[in-house]
Amino acid sequence: MKNYLESIKHYVGFFIIIGALTFVMTLLLSDKHVDLNQYTMVTIAQGDTLWGLALEYEQHHQLSSNEFIQWVEKMNELNKVKIETLSPGEQLYIPVLKEEINYETIYAIKEK
């Protein structure tokens, strides 16, 4: 019986260590650094919503509206209260690469 209890202690310790390592690795690998300088910053106007921004810029990103909003919330560190009270003049990063917007602006100018 004593050997059995010792054996269980070793297994429990082993699984605790494996679980802790898995948790740490998940945190390290899932928190990829995002360089916000690559993304477009928009200035909020009266009546703007995150849903409206997702639709306005839908030609410039590959995300669903919900994914767009979640990205904006996470990268701009917005909480639920802040999301519901976006203020005119406030600036937010959106998941649209600057080069995507600049390309379209240059292309439109060349077309004129």
TrEMBL record:
Transmembrane segments: 12-30
LysM domain span: 40-94
Keywords: Cell cycle, Cell division, Membrane, Transmembrane, Transmembrane helix
Domain of life, per lineage: Bacteria
Pfam families documented for this protein: LysM (PF01476)
One biological process term in Gene Ontology: cell division
Name of the protein: Cell division protein YceG involved in septum cleavage
Organism: Priestia iocasae
Lineage: Bacteria, Bacillati, Bacillota, Bacilli, Bacillales
